[in-house]
Each structure stands twice: as C-alpha cells, then as structure tokens.
Amino acid sequence: MTDTPTNEDSPDLDSCVRIGSIVSSNSHLDYVVEVYKERDCDCPPELHEREFGQPVFIKKTVDGTEHAVMGVIYDTQLVDPDQGRTGPRLAQDDQAQFTPGYIEERTTLAGVALLGTAEISEDGEIQEPTHQMPRWTLEVEDTVFNCPDQVTVSFHTVDDQIQLAYMDRLLDIAGDLGSEVIVALINRLQGMLPDDDPNQRVLDVVEQNVQWQAREQRGVV
User: Residue limits of the DUF8166 domain (predicted)?
Assistant: First the structure.
C-alpha cells in the first residue's frame, strides 16, 4: 500500500488529546476504555472529543517500529458504583480501606472497536495504512488518543482512493449501533474532504447502502 500525501503541518501525535486508558477487552478487536477525569490528567477530554463515532488511536512499538492502532468509539456506558446496592453501607472513606480495588467514583466507559493499523514515520506522519485486523493485543493501561482529522483521512486513503475495508467487522462488533457508527465515520470523512473531491461520491454511495441495509434489517424498507 502507498502512504497518503500529507502537508507540512502534520499533527504531533504525542500532543493529541488523551481520551482514557484501556481497562479490559471483550475480544481481540473490542476494548473497554475508562475516560479520563480531571484527577487523571491535566487536560481531560471534552465531550466532543470523545463522542460517538470519534476516531481514536493507540501507539504501539513492534520490532522497533512505532505503529498507530486505529479505532473508533462505538458505545459509552456510565458506571455508578453505588447503584444496585442494598443494605447497610460503609461510608466511601471507610470502604476504601477495606476494598482498595473498589471503584470509588462515577466514571464513563467507552467501547472502542479496532479498525486497522498504520506505521508512524520519524516525522510523526502515518504511512502504510491497512484495514486488516490488527495482529497485536493491546494492554491494560494503554493510552487511547483522540485522532486528528488529518490522520483520520490518511488512514482511510490509499492511492488517493477512500477505503472502508473494516466495515463488516465493525458492523459485527458494534451490533445494533453498527450502521450508526459507520454513518458517523462517513459523515466525518465527508466534512474533512473538499466538496469537489471524487471520494465524496464514493462516500455518498456507501452511506446510502449502509442506511438501506439497516432499514431492511429493521423491516422498514
């Protein structure tokens, strides 16, 4: 595959917004991320930086080469440790003494589906994007970053052609939200590309097909 041309103002991947860290996985391609709060980092993500359909990446070094493992937020879940409890309860301060591993605060979890990988060059640009299933397993506490628009476009462009080869996998992982997250990604790409870009037509056709298939599955065609 050929890397995508980028301009001289390519984003610094080290300075991208940190969304959160991985806490568990549901499968090789489906990870659970705990969203950072103010106590976790100097600049926790704003709502629009961790919203549904937000592209993300995780940096991994393999055999001396740095890679970006690309993904997308396809779901979120609110967790309140006090909900569902019955009977006498310890005060929060006391409870922490008895159960150090207990989640003491309300938190937000995000579901992240992996889409593919790309190499990170020495100057911080991504190259050799592929939408094949990532071979490497991510680890607990790996940091998940907000993916800049330019990197998102580069990951989806090979030889000036838009690719969305991960669609079937993403539909399977995201389940009932699969069509919505794909449409959200398409809409993002449409907003990033020039209006006269030939790939706009490709994205229009893919979006129409995804929405038609979703309506057919719901029996509303």
Answer: 6-221
